[in-house]
Structures are given as structure tokens and as C-alpha cells.
Design a protein that fits this description.
There is one protein chain. The protein has a domain at about 105-195: Jelly Rolls (Sandwich), CATH 2.60.120. It contains six helices and nine strands; from the N terminus they run αααααβββββββββα. It has helices at about 10-15, 20-35, 35-55, 65-75, 85-90, 205-215; strands at about 110, 115-120, 130-135, 150-155, 160, 165, 170-175, 180-185, 190-195. The strands form two sheets. A six-stranded antiparallel beta sheet has the order 1-2-3-9-4-7, with helices on one face. A three-stranded antiparallel beta sheet has the order 6-5-8, with no helix packed on it. α1 packs across α3 (about 35-55) and α2 packs across α3 (about 35-55). Bound molecules: zinc ion. Zinc ion binds near residues 2, 5, 30 and 37. Zinc ion binds near residues 30, 34 and 37. This is Cupin domain-containing protein.
């Protein structure tokens, strides 16, 4: 069961195409595992659509969402032929077009002796999204962030303070947040992460919707 979700403002920004590719991909991946957020996004898109239909359409940057949807169209919802069962069982459909090799064959980069990172080949390189792999029982040092950090658990789990995170759980940490995730002892943890992200790109429709919904 998923216990940690993106907040409504983030879902709204996703629904209106106001997020970078990296952040939009993270939300899309969470929503593909979370019926609750998927429903909320559908509702927000419907409200946004009717707002747009009732007014002169504003220029809004939907390029990022379009890119992801196009990739999904290209690939369909089936895993790419080159991805073996191991990856396709773990990676939700939105991620699969970005990972064309089995997970164990990806060129993982070891970072600081703590974790391994595979940077996803995004079209928009301004904000990076990566897969992170941490061994069972890893204690990360207590740390804060220079920017916002998003983490979505794909397999395994970790504990952060009193909160437990498992597959599908999402966390968004701010510059002010200090934390110390500890990977569960019973297996490695694979996450999708976006670090130091400027969260929002264009907010024209977003701001209008927020005012409308009082978010
Ligand atoms: Zn959710």
C-alpha cells in the first residue's frame, strides 16, 4: 500500500504541463502505480480543460508532457524488446522508454561508496533524473539539500525518521529539510530520484487553476 503521495500542487502542475521532464516523469511514474493520484490528475486535467475551453487559451508549455506521451506511444505500454523481465517487472511503464537495457547491465556509476546512480537519458537535460541503487542496510549520512529532492521507491524500501517508504511511495524534500534515510535490511532499494530540481517551469495555467481551486 502506498502511503506517501505528491501534494496536490505538484499534481496540478503535472496536469497543466508546468513541470520539467524529470519531475513530470517522476509524477507520471508514481501515478502509474497509484490509483488515487491518477484519479486526481484526471480530475485536474478535466477542470483545466474546461477552464481552457471557457476562455481564450493561454500559451502553455505542454511540450514536456507531450514528449513523455509520445515516447509512451512509441513504446506502447509493453516493455521495450531489449528490456528483460527483471527490468520490466520493476520499472513502471512511464520509465521503460528511458531504460533500454536490463537493470544489471546499465552503466551504474558508484557515488561516494554509498550508492550507485544511472542517469536517465532525458531530452530536457536541465533537470536530471536518475535511478539510484542502494545496498540493504545502507545508512546514509544525515544531510540536507541545495535544492528540492524528489524520491520515488521502485523496489525495496527505506526508513526516514519515523516514516517508512516502500514501492510506490513518493517523497519531496525541501532545502530546509534534513534527513537520514536507512535502507531496509531485507534487500537493496531502487529509487527514481530528481535532485536539486527547480520544480516549476511555467505556471500560467497552473496559477489560474490554483486560484480557481484555492490550492
Ligand atoms: Zn499517489
Amino acid at each position: 500500500m502506498i502511503n506517501h503521495h505528491p501534494d496536490e500542487a505538484l499534481l496540478l502542475d503535472y496536469a497543466t504541463g508546468a513541470l520539467s521532464e524529470a519531475v513530470a516523469l517522476t509524477i507520471a511514474t508514481h501515478a502509474s502505480m497509484c490509483i488515487r493520484c491518477m484519479r486526481q490528475i484526471n480530475q485536474l486535467e478535466a477542470i483545466g480543460g474546461s477552464l481552457l475551453a471557457s476562455e481564450t487559451p493561454a500559451e502553455c508549455d505542454d511540450g514536456v508532457l507531450a514528449q513523455i506521451l509520445m515516447r509512451l506511444d512509441d513504446e506502447g505500454l509493453e516493455p521495450a524488446a531489449t528490456v528483460k523481465t527483471e527490468s520490466s517487472a520493476i520499472l513502471p511503464p512511464p520509465l521503460r522508454p528511458y531504460v533500454n537495457e536490463p537493470l544489471h547491465q546499465l552503466p551504474w556509476k558508484r557515488v561516494g561508496g554509498l550508492y550507485e546512480e544511472y542517469r536517465l537519458p532525458l531530452a530536457d537535460t536541465k533537470v536530471r533524473a536518475s535511478l539510484f541503487r542502494l545496498a540493504a542496510g545502507t545508512h546514509t549520512p544525515k544531510h540536507s539539500h541545495r535544492g528540492q529532492e524528489l524520491v520515488l521507491v521502485l523496489s525495496g524500501g527505506y526508513r526516514d525518521g519515523d516514516a517508512q517508504f516502500a514501492r510506490g511511495d513518493f517523497s519531496a524534500l525541501d532545502v530546509a529539510d534534513t534527513h537520514q534515510p536507512i535502507v531496509d535490511d531485507d534487500g537493496p532499494c531502487l529509487c527514481l530520484g530528481v535532485q536539486e530540481a527547480p520544480m516549476r517551469l511555467t505556471e500560467v495555467l497552473s496559477l489560474r487553476l490554483r486560484r480557481f481551486l484555492r490550492i
